[in-house]
Amino acid sequence: MVLLFEVIEHVDLKGGDEMVARIHGVLNPGGRVILSTPNIYTPGQYWMGVDHLTAYHYEELGALFLSRGFSIADIRRVYNAPFLQYVMKVYLLTPFFRFLKIDYTKSILLVARKD
Fold first, then answer.
1. Pairing relationship of beta strands 107-114 and 70-78 according to DSSP bridges
2. Which residue would you say has higher pLDDT here, 104 or 7?
């Protein structure tokens, strides 16, 4: 298993592709990678780090892993907050966020398996 939390956005696109290829190379068949990266559709979340080089949308992140021979076990937007804030954003403000084409989730979590 390979764990990478908030790492892939710190390398350029070519470096990210090479990183995924190396992960594929070190894993045994059936091995898994769990990876997270900031959600680029959450205002300010991705740009909070001045050393971030590559932003990934969850579909692009999934495609990167699929192109390197992984199967996607799960990919989702991740959000945690105190109860009241969670309820407000998830249930009350979601239509507003969709209208503005922004998101309230802070990260993207991907679980992929080497076939």
1. antiparallel
2. 7
